[in-house]
Specification:
Number of helices: 11
Strand order of the largest sheet: 3-4-5-6-9-10-11-12-13-14
Shape: globular
Structural class: alpha/beta
Largest sheet: 10 strands, mixed
Radius of gyration: 21 Å
Amino acid sequence: MEKKDLKSMMYDEVLEEMAQIGLPSFRGKQIYSWLHEKLVPEFEQMSNLSKKLREQLEDTYICESLKPIEVLTSEIDGTQKYLFQLSDGNVIESVLMRYKHGNSVCISSQVGCRMGCRFCASTIGGLTRNLRASEMLDQIYRIQAMTGERVSNVVVMGTGEPMDNYDNLLRFIHMLTDEHGLNISQRNITVSTCGIVPRMYELAEEKLQITLALSLHGSNQEKRKSLMPIANKYSITEVIQACRNYFEKTGRRITFEYSLVGGVNDTEEDVRELCSLVKDVNCHINLIPVNPIKERDFKQSDKKVILNFKNKLEKCGINVTIRREMGRDINGACGQLRKSYMDRAKGEEA
């Protein structure tokens, strides 16, 4: 019999599941607390359960727990990058960023990615599989348990396209914000998408209070297509309209992620087009100096160009910031650590 993933079950589902195997509701509450508040990695550590019950749980359920196989710490800003191994041997990466307002963790939503964005290391090997809710949650749980520090903000912006793993994403959000778990505010969660339009409309109907971040990266349709294959399916006009709809349905301001690639999308014309594109959207633009990766020949925009780009957007009345570069000395770009690990593994096999 295939074991059930207990950590992916919501609070009421765990109580119902435990009732079905003849346990009183307080046992279900204890088990859920061990998994999602005390963050234990295995049933054996649930010390107020009998040995017999712990063995029964072990025989019937999976207690998903990620294995840290590499942790890099930036000497520049203390950012930590984690490489975790899943139970099937696949590896994913997560990042802990420490800010004055609290700790933020950037998690992966898939093993690999099939979106093919030209400047991203995450997509080079394609998509292996989706992550389950438990595997998304446990990135946060392991980091919090290992550091002893509370995580207050979560961004689903690591490897993978969250909207391509929509059902698991929704389950993850509901469990992360549940009062019986870490109880992180929905307003402290950001989900990034490259622009899968139908899912953006579905997410708006959920009426969640999370921030939706659109990876825009181009000021017009042709430039966006050259950087992001998804633009061949959904036009820039369609994704901007989906963003307007999200704000109308949720009241949550949209974030536009815009990676500045030297000589590609950082010109005076790009600024003008970008201002025109988003002028009537309640939004914030996050300018990202692109992280160079060895598999691509993209260069980071000059600092003067970045500042000029920011100033011109502000003159158009647009709220804009330049993302603080974190973890530059530890393979900071999405997918870089996982890619280097896989390359080393292949080299050892050869």
